[in-house]
Each structure stands twice: as structure tokens, then as C-alpha cells.
Amino acid sequence: MTTQTQESERRTRHAGARRGRHRGPIGDREAFARAFAALGQLAVQGVQVSARATDLATGEVLFSVDDHVVMPTASIGKVLLLVEVAARLQTGELSPLATLDRLPQDAAGDSGIWHHLHVPSLPVADLAALVGASSDNLATNVLLRRVGLEAVSARTEALGLTRTALLDLVRDHRGPDDAPQLSVGSANELTWLFSALARGEVVSPATSQRVISWLSLNSDFSLVSSAFGLDPHSHRHAEHGILLVNKTGTDAGVRSEVGVLRGPRAGVTYAVSTYFDDTSLPARLAVIDGMRTVGLDLLEYVF
After folding, report:
1. Partners of 239 in the β-ladder
2. pLDDT for 181 beyond 60
3. pLDDT digits (tens, 9 = 90+) for 5-56
4. Which of 274, 42, 79 is nearest to 192 (CA)?
5. Would you call 113 helix, strand, or coil by DSSP?
6. Of residues 75, 88, 248, 271, the one with CA closest to residue 168
7. Is it the case that residue 284 has pLDDT exceeding 60?
């Protein structure tokens, strides 16, 4: 109970921190000018945009765009499941080698590789690694069946998150009685969550490190992180002084990414979410290009 109270207090302090200027000078130029222009252009085109970036060391807000707005975030909510799994591994409630079976009701296609494999059971730690590496939907559902959505929601509330949540298991089709989105979140809270994970402040240092370790396997660099020049399949060690831990969320009309980017000069935590009418390839490519432009400014800040 004390730990939950401390986590909520840290979250409250962060929410009340002084907001930085939306554009701050670096050298003889304005920081994040390209990012603001790109996101502004998307907004003009009818895209709903929410974004935030904070300095990892100081917590200063480097830029923000409607960062309080609750947005669909697709698979990003799986991070909350990983937090619950990591916490239970740390207390011994779960064993990393405990084998879980996949059942017919867990079936989900799209993201991940387990549904392409023959093996019917995997250890808890391996399932979490699959979620971190490929956002594996089947592994997500099996873990979620084991720990329970209510437990994930309780953990989320204990962290002090009120605008960020995992709402449901992964479904190939969502009916009228299902949650309309897999997860939602605000850029404000997501940047706090990833900053806290990076500092070892989510539940405990060991729990935070487990989650970071799983997320460091992520191979989706298609959005903001496409600007960083990293190898999506081998990036757990710094390349040219750049180190990244991130999670993406992709669904029809949803592109979202949150991450921690470290470089030779600075570190930054960022979250960018977009919600748009995904009826044409040009519309989708415009969103992806805008998110990559944010990444270019983030890279310049840390490098």
C-alpha cells in the first residue's frame, strides 16, 4: 500500500511540474520547429494529434501539443500488462519459467509470430519477450488471461494514471459490446510512465528494469523512430551514441509511439499519437512522414 501511495505521489508531482516553452532555442535555431510545422500540417488535414517530449534528466517539457487529450494508442497499452507481469515475477507470484498454454479463445492474428509457430506453450518470460519484441497479440492474450485485466487496471490506477489504460484483450473483430479500442492514453502520462521506467521508479527498480529489457527488443521503427538510423533487429547497445527503448501502437486510423531516446548530449522521453481517417494511402503516408519529422528534431536534440 505504501509503494502504491509513493507511486501516486510521484505521478502527482510530475503532473504539476512547470511546463517548458513549446519551442526552446538551441544554438541559433528554434528547437522542434520542424516537428510543430509537421504536426500542425497534419491537424490542418483533419488528423487528431497529441504529442509531448520531456528532457529525461530535468523533466523540462521541450514541446507539447494537446498532451492532455486521451487518444487511442492501440498496442501501447500492452506496456501496462508487462508492468503487472514484471511486478508478479519480482514478488514470486509468477515464475519466469511457468509454462502457459494457448487456448482457442486466445487466438488473435496480425502482430506477432507465435500464431505462426507450432509450439503450443511457452514460459511467462518468453511470452513477455514476444510482446516486447513484436507486440505479439497471442502472447498478450495468454498473459492477460493469466494475470487478469482487472489486475492490470488496478496496477495502472496505483501508478496514478487516469488517462491511460489497457481496455480489453486483443480481438480480430470488435463488436458493439466490446471496448472500442485496445488501449487509450495521453501523451502527458505516457511520457511520465516511460521516464519513470527509465529511472527505475515503476513499482521497483527490478520491475522497471524487466519491462525496459523486454521493450528494448522492439523491432518496430516505422514511425517516430524511423528517423534515428538504428537497426530495428539489433539495437540493445548504443550505436553512434544513440540508445532507444520504444513501443508503438498501430491500428486502423491509429499511429502512436512512446519511447526514451538517449544520445551523446541529452536524453528525451517522447510520445506522439495520431488518429485519422485511414481511407487512402497518401493520408496514411502523410501521418507517418509527420511522425518521422518529429523524430528528426528529437534526434537533433539528443545528438
Report:
1. 242
2. yes
3. 444 444 444 443 333 333 333 333 478 999 999 999 999 999 999 999 999 9
4. 79
5. coil
6. 75
7. yes
Tell me the longest C-alpha to C-alpha distance in the chain: 59
User: Over 60: is that where the pLDDT of 200 sits?
Assistant: yes
Which band of pLDDT confidence, cut at 50, 70 and 90, is reported for residue 109? confident
**DSSP-assigned letters across all residues of 256-271:** EEEEEEE-SS-EEEEE
How do beta strands 121-123 and 99-101 pair? Answer: antiparallel
What is the grid cell recorded at 243?
540508445
- Please give the Cα distance from 131 to 117 (Å, whole number): 15
According to DSSP, the residues that pair with 115 across neighbouring strands are: none
Distance CA 228, CA 204 (A): 30
User: In the numeric block, which cell numbers belong to residue 273?
Assistant: 499519437
Burial 36-73 (b: 16+ CB within 10 A, else e): bebbeebeeeebbbbbbbbbbeebbbbbbbbbebbbbb
Q: What pLDDT, on a 0 to 100 scale, did the predictor assign at position 17?
A: 37
Q: Which helix (H) or strand (E) holds 138?
A: helix 137-147
The pTM assigned to this predicted structure is 0.89
Specify the pLDDT at position 31.
80
58: left (phi over 0), alpha (psi -120 to 50) or beta: alpha
**Contact yes or no for 140/78 (Cβ under 8 A):** yes
| 2-302 homologous superfamily | DD-peptidase/beta-lactamase superfamily (3.40.710.10)
